[in-house]
Amino acid sequence: MNTRPRLGFICAAAIVVSACGVANDAAPRDIPLQQRSALIDAPVQAPATSTGTDRIFLLAPQLPDQPSRLRATPRAVGPSIEARLNSLFGPLSVAETQVRLLTAIPEGLQLHSATLRTNGTVTIDVTDELLSLSSGALIESVAQIVFTALEVRNVQRVQLLVNGTSQQWPGGDGSLRTTALSAFDFPGLIETSQPNFPAVPSPNA
Predict the structure, then answer these.
(1) What's the whole-model pTM score?
(2) Pairwise CA distance, residues 116 & 149, whole Å
(3) How does residue 123 score in pLDDT terms, banded at 50, 70 and 90?
(4) Mean pLDDT, the chain, whole residue set
(5) Hey, which of 42, 147, 176, 201 has its CA 20 to 30 A from 114?
(6) In degrees rounded to 5, what are phi and psi of residue 129?
(7) What is the per-residue pLDDT across 91-111, written as a single tens digit (0 to 9) for each?
(8) Res. 204 pLDDT band, cuts 50 70 90
């Protein structure tokens, strides 16, 4: 059998296949005009944002020469007090870190129990990591717990225990409280979206 025609066909096929391969660029080159629209029209990926209808309270980015403020932050965690607090005690989400939110909650803090009484006071029992915080961080951390708990329906005050034992907790001014805490113990600590309007001039000015 004469193998020369078959060998010639194989060589010709190999040349065609090699010509169809994509060669590596030896230097930068322009993108052909017909291929540019796919790049120009490609959607830009937006940063992730927090979602949910439940709210916890984190620390807003601190402005120069301004005190810390708490910011209500949405999370999809469920309506119960235990779900809110366990979420608060957990790590920040990617979306929250992207917008520079922080937390004063100490790492490792755990919830023992949360019991709501008929008078509107919820008793929250946590582990002792809270007691290791300095004064400023302790105020912020306690305020985060109080305001997050107050988001739950029928909660009006928060009694905070450590391993079942009552403690004295600082309010927003740093003075210690022996009674259950409420929003009135932390005046001015919540971030507001209200713009700073110029002062109204006096009629006699």
Answers:
(1) 0.70
(2) 10
(3) very high
(4) 79
(5) 176
(6) -60, -25
(7) 999 999 999 999 999 999 999
(8) low
